[in-house]
């Protein structure tokens, strides 16, 4: 999985006044959990642009004056009115410890059902995976090539490489629905066939 570096500074004071002052200065108060002690720090709000405002998922290298930590974004709070980032929680990664993350689904292939007039519906835009940090995928591939009209692609048919998918076996990732136009055409064809059979009689 691709990684983004966030540069920040450790916070000595974590009270409300210090937090307000940090936000007023364009900084985001953050906490890193998962180590021996929580690490409180601040980082520039603009530094989170490529981490927060993107459909992609990344791990994070937190650089606090040269001391680095590998982490994932665990929780984020936004201002209810202006959507500014108020606070972020990170979780420190350990090379030997599996973690759970939601990663995007990437559709590949051309569905036979879609080419025949069906409509592709992506039921799951993200899937929850569990893996060691080194094995976390950037995305999960959903191959729709063999999907005929009316078919579904289940989570059990999605390839997993050194990671586990944490979903019930009956979870539908994608499906090809019959479009209204195709349904109408099928109904008209059935009606015409019925009338032709009547005429023969």
Question: What does the model show?
Answer:
The chain has 201 residues and is α+β, with helices and mostly antiparallel strands. It is 19% helix and 41% strand. The chain contains four helices and 13 strands. The chain has helices at residues 16-24, 49-52, 112-115, 180-200, and strands at residues 3-10, 27-33, 39-44, 59-64, 67-78, 85-92, 99-108, 119-122, 126-131, 140-143, 152-154, 164-165, 172-177. It starts with a strand and ends with a helix.
Gist of the model:
The chain is an alpha+beta fold.
Rg computed from alpha carbons, rounded to a whole number of angstroms: 25 Å
**Mean pLDDT, all residues:** 88
Query: Structural class of the helices, strands and pairings?
Result: alpha+beta
| Proportion in helices | 10-25%
What are the low-pLDDT stretches, counting only 5+ consecutive residues below 50?
A: none
Could you give the order of the helices and strands?
EHEEHEEEEHEEEEEEH
What distance separates the N and C termini? Answer: 67 Å
Strand content: 35-45%
Topology, number of strands:
13
């Amino acid at each position: 999985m691709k990684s983004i570096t966030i540069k920040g500074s450790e916070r000595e004071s974590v009270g409300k006044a210090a937090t307000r002052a940090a936000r007023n200065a364009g900084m985001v108060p953050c906490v890193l959990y998962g180590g021996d002690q929580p690490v409180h720090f601040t980082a520039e709000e603009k530094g989170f642009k490529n981490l927060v405002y993107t459909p992609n998922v990344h791990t994070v290298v937190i650089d606090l004056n040269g001391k680095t930590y590998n982490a994932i974004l665990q929780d984020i709070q936004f201002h209810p009115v202006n959507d500014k980032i108020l606070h972020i929680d990170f979780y420190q990664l350990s090379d030997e410890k599996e973690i759970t993350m939601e990663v995007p689904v990437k559709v590949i292939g051309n569905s036979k059902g879609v080419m025949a007039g069906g409509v592709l519906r992506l039921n799951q835009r993200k899937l929850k995976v569990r893996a060691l940090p080194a094995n976390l995928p950037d995305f999960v591939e959903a191959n729709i090539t063999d999907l005929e009209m009316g078919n579904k692609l289940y989570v059990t048919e999605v390839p997993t490489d050194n990671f586990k998918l944490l979903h019930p076996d009956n979870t539908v990732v994608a499906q090809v629905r019959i479009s209204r136009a195709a349904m109408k055409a099928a109904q008209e064809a059935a009606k015409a066939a019925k009338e032709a059979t009547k005429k023969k009689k």
